[in-house]
C-alpha cells in the first residue's frame, strides 16, 4: 500500500545537459500524450480559431475592450479512461486536443466560453467544453488582461488629476499618465489591485493601492486606496466610487482635494526615499559580527560522474521512478503516470490552487482574498537563475504559454531538474561493540531528484517542488517568498498585522495550497481508511498488580467501506494517518496532522478550482464542495485524494525586503507502506559498508563501495549569466 502522510514543513541556458538528458528530445509515447502544446501547436490553434468568421476574434492587445478575444490556449489532457486504455492495454492513442478560452465581449450578452480544439497538430474542429452542471461562465468572472490594466491606468490617471498637489506635497511622487521606471527617478506612483472585485456576483469593482514606483514598490504604499468600478465593457463609463486616505473615507477625488486645500485633512507626510540601499532592495547593507566571509562563493552542488537521471522531452526517469510532467498555464506543475519500478503509484499529482486570505483595517486589506489560479499562476513562470534558483548542474527546460497574448510566449528556463544532496543520510547505522570499537558501520548518502518551477504572482514568489527519493517516497512542497502584501500603517491596523517599517503594515494572512493526488496503487481499485493511534492502560501480564501504558492502533478509526460521500477531516486529538491501499494489504499507523478529502474519480471533476474563482467566488463555476456530496462508496474504487496544506503568516520586520524560505514551506509525502518486501533503495549502488578485519586492534578495515572515487571539484568555472526575458 502507499501512505499519504501530511506534515507541516517546519523548520536551456548556460548548462549543456548530458547525453542522458535532452528536454528537446521527443518523449516516449507514454509521456507524449501528456506533453504541453508546442509553439507550433499553439500557433496552429490560434490561427485556426482566428480564421473562423463566426467567432469574430480580434487581437488581444489592440482595439477596444468590448471585443471577442482568445485568452488562453493549453493542452486539454486526455480523459483518464482513454489514456489508461492506451497506456495499459495498447488501445488507440487519445486524440490530442487543446483547451481554448475565448472572451466574447463584443456582443449584446458578453460571456466566456471554453472550447476543445483538435485534432492536433492540424486542428479542424472546435466544440464547447462543458463545466460540471452545464453552467455558463459570466463575463465578469473572467481574469484580468493587460488591456484592461492599461485602461485602468488611464482611468486612474484622470481621476488622480485633482490630487496632484496632495500627492506631490505628501509623498514627493504623483500619478503620471505615461511610462515610468521602477528606479524612481521619474517620481511616479503605481498601483496594486486586489480581489475579489466587489461584494456580490456580477460586480467588477476593484480597490487599488497606490504606491511609490521604486524598487520593491509593494512595500511603499502612500496611504491612498481607490475603488474603481470597471464592470462596463466601455471604459468611458468607469468611475471612481470611493477613496480611503490615511484612515478616512471620501466619496470622490474632488472631495479629498478640497479637504486638503481647506487645511482640514490629516496628511501623511512620507520621508524622501533614498535611491541607494533602499529598505525594499536587495543591496547589501550592514555587517555580520563574526566577520566570516560572505563575499566568496558558498557550497555548491556537483555531479562527479555526471547526471544520474534521464530526461527525454517531458519524460523523466530517476532510480525506480518514471513520470511525465507538464507546466499548464492555468495552474502550474502536473505529474502524470507516476511509477516506481514499473508499478503505477499515481495517475496524476498536480497543483490546483494557492489561496491567501488577508485581514486589515484599510478597505483593500480587508477585501484581499487572493486565489492565484485566477492570476495565471501557471503562466508567470519566469526564468530560473542558475546557481541561485537551481544548482549550477541543473537541467533547464523552457515553457511556452499562450495566455493573454497574440501568440505563444517563450519563458526561458522556466523549469529545472536536478539531483540534490539532502545533507542527511537516507539511512545509516553504527554498530558499536561497546568496548571502544565496532562491528560495522553502514550508510547510504541521501539524495533526491527535484523537479522545480516558480510562480511570481505579483508580489509573492512560490517555489514549487516535487522531490523523488530512492526509497519510493515522493514529496510535494511549496516555499513562499517574495514581497509581503503590505498596506499603509495606521494605529488601528496593528490588530491585523505588524508594523514592518515607518509607514508600512505587514498584513497577517493564511496561505492555503490545494493538490490533487489521483492514486492508482496497483490499479484503480483502491480503498481509503483512517488509522488512529491512542494509548491504552492495561494490566501487566507478567507482573501482577502493575500497569502498562503503551500506544496502540486503530482506536476511533473509520471503518473501511463505510458508505459516506466525503472524508473531510480535521486534526484529531491523537495521532492519525491516512491509508490508501489495494485489496488485501496490511496497514499500520503513522502520525497525521492534515486536512484531506477523498472522492471517487470523475471525468467532469478534473480540477478543484478554476481561473474564474478569483472574480466569481460567491457562486464559483467549479465548486469543490459539490465533489463531496455524491454519497458514493469509496471502497475498491478509483480514488482521488485532495490535499490542503498551509500556514499562517504574521509578517514581521525580518520579512523586509523579502519573506525568507526557511519556516515558510509546506507540503506532504506519498510513502510506500508494506508495498515492498523491504526498502527499495537497497537497489542503490551508493552505500558504504565498513567492517573491521582485526578486532580488537582495528588496524585493518574492509571498506565496501560500489561507486568510483570522486574526481574532485566539478563546479563549472564560468561566470554567472542571466537573461530574464520571455
TrEMBL record:
<feature type="domain" description="Copper amine oxidase catalytic">
    <location>
        <begin position="300"/>
        <end position="536"/>
    </location>
</feature>
<dbReference type="GO" id="GO:0052597">
    <property type="term" value="F:diamine oxidase activity"/>
</dbReference>
<keyword id="KW-0186">Copper</keyword>
<dbReference type="InterPro" id="IPR015800">
    <property type="entry name" value="Cu_amine_oxidase_N2"/>
</dbReference>
<dbReference type="Pfam" id="PF02728">
    <property type="entry name" value="Cu_amine_oxidN3"/>
</dbReference>
<dbReference type="GO" id="GO:0005507">
    <property type="term" value="F:copper ion binding"/>
</dbReference>
<dbReference type="InterPro" id="IPR015798">
    <property type="entry name" value="Cu_amine_oxidase_C"/>
</dbReference>
<feature type="active site" description="Schiff-base intermediate with substrate; via topaquinone">
    <location>
        <position position="460"/>
    </location>
</feature>
<protein>
    <recommendedName>
        <fullName>Amine oxidase</fullName>
        <ecNumber>1.4.3.-</ecNumber>
    </recommendedName>
</protein>
<dbReference type="GO" id="GO:0048038">
    <property type="term" value="F:quinone binding"/>
</dbReference>
<dbReference type="InterPro" id="IPR016182">
    <property type="entry name" value="Cu_amine_oxidase_N-reg"/>
</dbReference>
<dbReference type="InterPro" id="IPR000269">
    <property type="entry name" value="Cu_amine_oxidase"/>
</dbReference>
<dbReference type="InterPro" id="IPR015802">
    <property type="entry name" value="Cu_amine_oxidase_N3"/>
</dbReference>
<dbReference type="GO" id="GO:0009308">
    <property type="term" value="P:amine metabolic process"/>
</dbReference>
<feature type="domain" description="Copper amine oxidase catalytic">
    <location>
        <begin position="593"/>
        <end position="681"/>
    </location>
</feature>
<feature type="modified residue" description="2',4',5'-topaquinone">
    <location>
        <position position="460"/>
    </location>
</feature>
<keyword id="KW-0801">TPQ</keyword>
<dbReference type="InterPro" id="IPR049948">
    <property type="entry name" value="Cu_Am_ox_TPQ-bd"/>
</dbReference>
<dbReference type="GO" id="GO:0005886">
    <property type="term" value="C:plasma membrane"/>
</dbReference>
<keyword id="KW-0479">Metal-binding</keyword>
<dbReference type="Pfam" id="PF01179">
    <property type="entry name" value="Cu_amine_oxid"/>
</dbReference>
<dbReference type="GO" id="GO:0046677">
    <property type="term" value="P:response to antibiotic"/>
</dbReference>
<comment type="similarity">
    <text>Belongs to the copper/topaquinone oxidase family.</text>
</comment>
<dbReference type="Pfam" id="PF02727">
    <property type="entry name" value="Cu_amine_oxidN2"/>
</dbReference>
<dbReference type="GO" id="GO:0008131">
    <property type="term" value="F:primary methylamine oxidase activity"/>
</dbReference>
<keyword id="KW-0732">Signal</keyword>
<feature type="active site" description="Proton acceptor">
    <location>
        <position position="372"/>
    </location>
</feature>
<feature type="signal peptide">
    <location>
        <begin position="1"/>
        <end position="20"/>
    </location>
</feature>
<dbReference type="InterPro" id="IPR049947">
    <property type="entry name" value="Cu_Am_Ox_Cu-bd"/>
</dbReference>
<feature type="domain" description="Copper amine oxidase N2-terminal">
    <location>
        <begin position="41"/>
        <end position="124"/>
    </location>
</feature>
<keyword id="KW-0560">Oxidoreductase</keyword>
<feature type="domain" description="Copper amine oxidase N3-terminal">
    <location>
        <begin position="178"/>
        <end position="248"/>
    </location>
</feature>
<dbReference type="InterPro" id="IPR036460">
    <property type="entry name" value="Cu_amine_oxidase_C_sf"/>
</dbReference>
